[in-house]
Cytochrome bc1 complex Rieske iron-sulfur subunit (Streptomyces buecherae), 351 residues
Amino acid sequence: MSSQDNSEENLPQQQDDADGGVLATRDNPFANPGLPPHEHRVQDIDERAAKRSERVVAGLFTLSMLSTIGFIASFVAFPVDKIVYVFPIGRVSALNLSLGLTLGLALFCIGAGAIHWARTLMTDVEVPEERHDIEATPEVREEVLAGFQDGARESDLGRRKLVRNTLIGAMAMVPLTGLVLLRDLGPMPGTMLRHTKWAKGKMLINENTHEPLRPEDIAVGSLTFAMPEGLSEEDHDFNNQIAKAALMIVRLQPENIKDKRELDWSHEGIVAFSKICTHVGCPISLYEQQTHHVLCPCHQSTFDLTDGGRVIFGPAGHALPQLRITVNDKGYLEAMGDFAEPVGPAYWERG
């Protein structure tokens, strides 16, 4: 008998070790050895090290609080229309950048502090839990393997090479359908939003009555919605066109208009602005007569119609585009061209 056989015979049938495991036996030479001896961290045996870790965790949480204060202060410090250049991103909103950085730092410091706290100060004593074996019995494994082999043999996948190859080709080409779905994202925003149906000489048509508007039709303090001449609800692309060209008209006292360009582009205090919110494109429909503010009902972006449609509250990124208007020789309000800037939400190429 070999020495190896002698050594296996000397193994006991079963013996528990001091750490809760099971020592190797003749029947199970790879038994669970149990947990290794617990190693204490430096913070467990040195109170000064524990205090240092405590200060680090507290410092991270304090930095998070300061970042939150910075997040709140950013609303006061940066106007919504301030643009800064950041390499390598390019031109970005100073407000959005500051809000993102401060909020990101606040959340990161909370997470980092919690992790450092757990790894250095919380208890790390291992607690074993007995669990049953989850592996299948040899009989079940043999039955599953035999079933798989029978299925592969009966399918003739190995012998029917034409079927196999065409199946592989079909499965490989199915993901290409996802590329086709990208077409539904539509054209680039710059192409789609920069031009509307408004053009020089097109009259302003009341959306409700479908009649051309005269200056006397616009009362002080009223809100009127208009669309460009020649646009009809019978057109196949009416919804797409009105979504860009929708116009709101308000009559103000000329002395209340603060922006010089707005005053020059108006007619006797009648101003025309895009109805499409510059946040996500919702239609603006709420007008406050006393303040001359318009409010988007979706996310409460608020614009001042006496100051060039400037954003004074909410997530919108830029002012409402204004349409330059005048009166033709027949006494009807008409546009003097298209909007000077793209309508609707901001996008990367807007500039």
Q: What stands out?
A: The chain has ten helices and twelve strands. The longest strand covers residues 223-228. Residues 1-14 have pLDDT under 50 and may be disordered. Residues 47-77 form the longest helix (31 residues).
